[in-house]
């Protein structure tokens, strides 16, 4: 939009015209680039600052200009006091680099410039902070230039500047002292003694006053011990050492000050660690720790002083010897740390445990001494609260433990489990526990708590892959957990090492259950554990990615089964907690025989079925200690299936066809056993079942796969699908209910024979009424059978009033009433039982649904594994429709979380593992007709579904079937065949094209349907052959679609087809030209008399214009013989009334198309007339004190008063007008309303102005005169 403004030419003449600036030599450009370095140095981004400093130094090296170097030094010195912190640090780094590179710049002169520019004596009060920072960063630049140690006098001046900055602690904090320490650490002994010592003498003398001065002294002592000898130190401090009893109070105060100074930073102040190191050098560590830390710091309330002590404890671990570690880790600091661990469990409290774990981890990682590691780990293990250690069982600090220390630590844990010596532990109780007498636990309870902590610590050591350990250690721990979980010791024997340690306190049932669960958890970890060690044999096994075996190839679970068998045979020394019957023991022995037979066959020929059966036998056998009856049944099934699997081929050939059909394949039997095992809620069983199923996937048959898919089939009952839900809890609850029912019947008989109180009867009546109300709510109305029973009871006792009764005076006697009460009570009790039975049945059904759904999720894991391992198998084709049935049923089922997870998992498997899988079946010989029928069923079902999201899965499945049919092409047989046959393989192109054409026509003609345009666009992209065959139908529907939405989708399909190179290659030039002409004609018809009345039409127009744009570009670039005049005329007619000149997506697309025809969007020129603008300004601009012309009263004059006199000219003064109008408005408001005249709200009378007091008095008088005048 061009705006033309008219200006006064006289004013333009007075403006001086500046000459045009030229930069022929590029001097301005060079200066601009040079100055940009300083702008970048001041930016907040660190990377940009460092890059600018590097570029600036490089520029100065190359230019070698003295004026630029001088300007750089001046600019950097000035920037040291910048307002932003990042900018100050940037200029400081740049100055340090400048001084380091250009040694011709004198440090003395630079320091003088810094003092002169940032003079604290002459700076104003508001610039004191910036000036102090300028001095500090200037000295910091000099110290970082690596040249300061060469000029001692300059170093002395820098120290003096830093000393003078100590009074500005509110701004600089302890930065000057830290810089002084850094300077000292880089200073030689001679320079310190000759130059700096005299300057620092005052600070060293008052070292026990502040943390900064003490840190300065400690650094000097550490750096220059030859200068600060005991005699000289005695002159400074009054003692030859720092750590003395006389200095302890001052040292404690300094440490407290340091602790409070880092309260927000959560860090250890350097002075504390330096002080600890000084105590170690002076051999006064125990006195320092006892007097300063325990008696001084820990005497305060929990807070910064305690946290400093904890941090000092963690930081001191690498510095201490073994006796010192034992002294520190068994004192009050550790006890207070344990109390903090318990008190900090609430989410709003500060937790120090992560910091301490980091300190210990760093110590363990950097320390190779096994004794030190063992001391630290044992000390934290023995920090207990009523027997339970405060550190977690799963402690990452153990990751870096050396094997020798780990072996000793595991031995200690095993011994502590058998004979806990709690008196050696650092046990404590919180204040609440001390105050509560009931919370004091007995010694046996403390032992049980300690054992419950040891069990997960042992399992953590075995399962953690970061801890380096040996196979003997893993087996030792696992055997120990198994032995104490399922066996008791009768008599110790050297053949069983676990019997050597007698239990000081018997193991209770809860600890036994914890051991049992820990053992099966260990089996879970061992089953997925890689080979331990670094030997060549172990590396070879790991290269094959075999899990769950030892270095020699033996399975961990096999070793444990052998150990369990040895324990069962040693009944003289040990006793099993779970007593096995004779039949169960025979099943155990037969299991071992079967495993040994399988191991022998596996050595000769390692077939997957041998390993699979071996896994299952061992898994089910080890489960016998937990559930012997169920394990025995599974073992029998396994034995029979193995016998069938190991049958010789000759016998199979001699067998009749009938018998061979009746006997299931060995894979089918294993699959059934796996399904039955998966119904149990155990992670171990689930992992082993997945491992076994992964081994037998290549041998899976159609019947075995059908048994898996039948579980997922929602149309079959649970009994038919093979889902058997068994829950031991339900059996126990049923038995309890039967016992309770018997007890209630006995109680009922007792109540009938005894007297009951009225209150009890009232309570029973209330309960019965509540039960009746519940029955009404559940069933909608009272059960008719119950109503009839109640009528019979009342009529039998003559308690029901009838019409024949003449009076109500006759009443039942006491005996009859008692009998009636008993009958009613029994009747209502039966009704209560029926209601409770309905509730129990409802709960049982809901629990079964949860169990069944969880079981089906596990079965989906098997399906996913089969697709990953055998995606190219022909059996995969049988999974398509069952998975679609699961998805369809899941979308229409309940919306609980478990159902959603099940549906999401099934949809993910179908979409990502099946349809988008890398490998798919390519051999479909003899199944072409079956697959075409499946394809037609899928497309037909996709058109009948009510939801497009579900229809998308069926449409994707149809495309997957086409991909399978296309993948089975044989190039030799189709060399002379048409191109479509070469591309589509075994696909019946005409049959499939007809099916797709019907679906496309249904999509275009139906008002509401499940199909979408994206589905057909996906079809066109994946199968160009069908795209070519369906293009005519899509082009016809550009104007023939039922609604605008379908027409727009047709345009999108045609556009996608025309953009495809494969479609272009499949079509001849003549057909392409005819197709383009046909599309042009259809677009011209769609643009004729189009009215953009709603959003749907506009969206359709956008897609049509996109197609039109591509079409016109193609025609013009390839110079095709196509007539575009009709299309151009219709496009021009769309903008006859200027409707396409508004902003919008459709309008922009329209003008991009018209631009191809050489027609550009006209530019609107908006002309503003200056005269009209001035008139509008005069009309709109209000003068103070006046009303607009339309708001003035014309029937009377308004006299105004100014300074007590009435003058007509006084109306021009705004003050008088505002005051007069305000008074009139207030006093004549009612009268004006009565007369019906207009009263303005925006007149300037409401605005108060500043006037003199005399004017206010005259205004009052003037108002009175005005009123009289009216």
From TrEMBL:
One of its GO terms (cellular component) is nucleolus. Residues 713-784, 1181-1270 are annotated as: Disordered. Residues 1181-1199, 1224-1234 have a biased composition (Basic residues). GO terms for molecular function: RNA binding; sequence-specific DNA binding; transcription corepressor activity. It comes from the Eukaryota. Keywords: Nucleus. Residues 738-781 have a biased composition (Acidic residues). Residues 726-737 have a biased composition (Basic and acidic residues). InterPro entries: ARM-type_fold, DNA_pol_V/MYBBP1A. Its main location: nucleus. Residues 1241-1255 have a biased composition (Low complexity). Pfam families: DNA_pol_phi (PF04931). It is found in: Nucleus. Belongs to the MYBBP1A family. PANTHER family: MYB-BINDING PROTEIN 1A (PTHR13213:SF2), MYB-BINDING PROTEIN 1A FAMILY MEMBER (PTHR13213). This is Myb-binding protein 1A-like protein.
């Amino acid at each position: 939009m061009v705006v033309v403004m008219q200006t006064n030419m006289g004013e333009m003449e007075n403006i001086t015209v500046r000459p045009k600036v030229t930069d022929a030599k590029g001097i301005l450009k060079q200066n601009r680039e040079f100055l940009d370095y300083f702008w970048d140095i001041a930016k907040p981004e660190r990377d940009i600052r460092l890059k600018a400093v590097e570029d600036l130094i490089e520029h100065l090296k190359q230019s070698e200009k003295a004026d630029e170097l001088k300007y750089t030094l001046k600019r950097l010195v000035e920037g040291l006091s910048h307002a932003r912190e990042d900018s100050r640090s940037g200029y400081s780094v740049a100055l340090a680099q400048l001084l380091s590179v250009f040694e011709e710049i004198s440090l003395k002169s630079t320091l003088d410039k810094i003092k002169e520019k940032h003079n604290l004596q002459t700076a104003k009060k508001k610039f004191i902070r910036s000036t102090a920072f300028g001095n500090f960063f200037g000295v910091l630049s000099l110290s970082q230039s690596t040249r300061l140690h060469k000029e001692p006098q300059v170093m002395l001046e820098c120290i003096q500047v830093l000393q003078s900055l100590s009074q500005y602690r509110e701004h600089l904090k302890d930065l000057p002292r830290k810089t002084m320490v850094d300077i000292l650490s880089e200073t030689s002994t001679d320079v310190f003694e000759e130059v700096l010592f005299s300057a620092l003498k005052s600070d060293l003398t008052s070292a026990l006053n502040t943390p900064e001065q003490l840190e300065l002294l400690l650094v000097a002592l550490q750096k220059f011990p030859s200068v600060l000898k005991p005699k000289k130190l005695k002159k400074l401090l009054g003692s030859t050492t720092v750590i003395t009893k006389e200095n302890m109070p001052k040292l404690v105060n300094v440490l407290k000050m340091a602790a409070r100074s880092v309260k927000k930073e959560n860090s250890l102040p350097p002075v504390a660690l330096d002080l600890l190191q000084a105590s170690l050098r002076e051999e006064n560590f125990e006195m320092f720790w006892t007097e300063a830390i325990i008696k001084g710091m820990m005497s305060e309330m929990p807070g910064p002083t305690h946290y400093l002590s904890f941090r000092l404890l963690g930081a001191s671990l690498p510095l201490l010897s073994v006796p010192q570690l034992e002294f520190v880790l068994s004192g009050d600091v550790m006890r207070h740390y344990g109390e903090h661990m318990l008190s900090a469990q609430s989410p709003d409290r500060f937790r120090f445990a992560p910091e301490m774990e980091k300190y210990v981890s760093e110590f363990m990682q950097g320390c190779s001494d096994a004794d030190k590691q063992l001391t630290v780990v044992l000390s934290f293990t023995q920090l207990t609260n009523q027997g339970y250690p405060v550190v977690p069982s799963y402690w990452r600090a153990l990751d870096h433990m050396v094997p020798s220390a780990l072996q000793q630590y595991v031995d200690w844990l095993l011994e502590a489990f058998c004979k806990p010596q709690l008196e050696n532990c650092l046990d404590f109780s919180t204040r609440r526990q001390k105050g509560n007498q009931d919370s004091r636990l007995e010694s046996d309870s403390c032992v049980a708590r300690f054992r419950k902590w040891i069990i997960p610590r042992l399992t953590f050591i075995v399962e953690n892959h970061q801890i380096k350990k040996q196979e003997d250690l893993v087996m030792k721990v696992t055997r120990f957990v198994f032995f104490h979980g399922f066996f008791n010791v009768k008599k110790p024997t050297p053949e069983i090492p676990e019997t050597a340690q007698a239990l000081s306190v018997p193991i209770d049932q809860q600890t036994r259950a914890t051991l049992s669960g820990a053992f099966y958890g260990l089996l879970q970890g061992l089953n997925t554990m890689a080979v331990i060690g670094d030997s060549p044999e172990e590396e070879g096994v790991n290269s094959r990615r075999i899990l769950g075996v030892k270095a020699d190839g033996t399975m961990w679970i096999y070793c444990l089964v052998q150990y369990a068998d040895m324990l069962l045979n040693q009944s003289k020394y040990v006793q099993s907690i779970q007593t096995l019957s004779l039949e169960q023991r025979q099943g155990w022995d037969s299991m071992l025989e079967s495993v040994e037979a399988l191991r022998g066959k596996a050595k000769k020929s390692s077939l997957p079925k041998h390993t699979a059966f071996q896994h299952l036998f061992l898994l089910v056998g080890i489960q016998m200690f937990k559930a012997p009856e169920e394990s025995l049944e599974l073992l029998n099934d396994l034995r029979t299936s193995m016998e069938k699997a190991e049958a010789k081929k000759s016998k199979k050939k001699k067998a009749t066809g009938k018998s061979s059909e009746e006997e299931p394949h060995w894979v089918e039997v294993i699959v059934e056993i796996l399904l039955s095992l998966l119904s149990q809620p155990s992670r171990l069983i689930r992992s082993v079942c997945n491992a076994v199923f992964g081994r037998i996937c290549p041998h899976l048959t159609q019947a075995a796969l059908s048994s898996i898919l039948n579980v997922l089939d929602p149309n079959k009952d649970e009994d038919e699908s093979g889902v058997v839900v068994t829950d031991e809890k339900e059996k126990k609850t049923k038995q309890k209910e039967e016992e309770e029912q018997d007890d209630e019947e006995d109680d009922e008989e007792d109540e009938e024979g005894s007297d009951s109180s009225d209150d009890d009867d009232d309570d029973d009546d209330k309960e019965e009424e509540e039960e009746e109300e519940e029955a009404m709510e559940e069933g909608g109305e009272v059960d008719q059978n119950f109503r009839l029973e109640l009528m019979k009871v009342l009529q039998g006792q003559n308690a029901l009033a009838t019409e024949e009764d003449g009076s109500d005076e006759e009443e039942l006697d006491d005996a009859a009433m008692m009998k009636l009460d008993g009958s009613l009570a029994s009747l209502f009790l039966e009704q209560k039982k029926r209601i409770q039975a309905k509730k129990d049945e409802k709960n049982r059904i809901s629990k079964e649904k949860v169990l069944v759904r969880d079981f089906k999720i596990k079965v989906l894991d098997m399906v996913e594994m089969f697709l990953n391992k055998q995606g190219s198998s022909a059996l995969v084709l049988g999974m398509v429709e069952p998975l679609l049935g699961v998805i369809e049923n899941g979308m229409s089922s309940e919306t609980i979380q478990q159902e959603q997870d099940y549906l999401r998992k099934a949809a993910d498997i179908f979409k990502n593992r099946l349809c988008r899988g890398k490998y798919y079946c390519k051999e479909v010989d003899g199944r072409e007709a079956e697959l075409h029928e499946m394809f037609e069923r899928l497309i037909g079902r996709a058109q009948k579904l009510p939801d497009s999201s579900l229809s998308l899965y069926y449409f994707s499945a149809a495309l997957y079937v086409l991909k399978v049919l296309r993948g089975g092409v044989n190039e030799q047989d189709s060399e002379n065949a048409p191109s479509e046959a070469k591309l589509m393989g075994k696909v019946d192109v005409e049959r499939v094209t007809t099916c797709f054409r019907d679906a496309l026509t249904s999509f275009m003609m139906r008002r509401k349907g499940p199909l979408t345009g994206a589905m057909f666009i996906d079809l066109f992209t994946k199968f160009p052959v069908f795209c070519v065959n369906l293009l005519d139908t899509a082009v016809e529907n550009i104007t023939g679609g039922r609604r605008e939405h379908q027409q727009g989708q047709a345009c999108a399909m045609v556009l996608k087809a025309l953009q495809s190179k494969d479609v272009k290659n499949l079509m001849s030039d003549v057909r392409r030209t005819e197709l383009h002409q046909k599309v042009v004609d259809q677009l011209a018809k769609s643009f004729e008399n189009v009215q953009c009345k709603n959003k749907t039409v506009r969206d359709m127009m956008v897609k049509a214009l996109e197609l039109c744009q591509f079409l016109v570009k193609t025609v013009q670039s390839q110079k095709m013989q196509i007539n575009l005049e009709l299309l151009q005329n219709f496009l021009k007619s769309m903008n006859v009334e200027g409707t396409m000149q508004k902003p919008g997506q459709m309008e922009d697309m329209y003008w991009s198309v018209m631009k191809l025809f050489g027609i550009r969007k006209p530019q609107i020129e908006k002309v503003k007339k200056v005269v009209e603008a001035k008139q509008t300004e005069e009309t709109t601009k209000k003068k103070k004190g006046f009303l607009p012309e339309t708001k003035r009263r014309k029937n009377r004059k308004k006299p105004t008063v100014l300074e007590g006199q009435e003058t007509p000219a006084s109306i021009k003064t705004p003050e008088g007008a505002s005051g007069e109008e305000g008074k009139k408005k207030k006093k004549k408001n009612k009268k004006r309303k009565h007369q019906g005249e207009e009263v303005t709200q925006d007149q300037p009378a409401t605005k108060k102005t500043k006037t003199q007091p005399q004017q206010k008095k005259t205004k009052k008088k003037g108002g009175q005169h005005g009123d009289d005048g009216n």
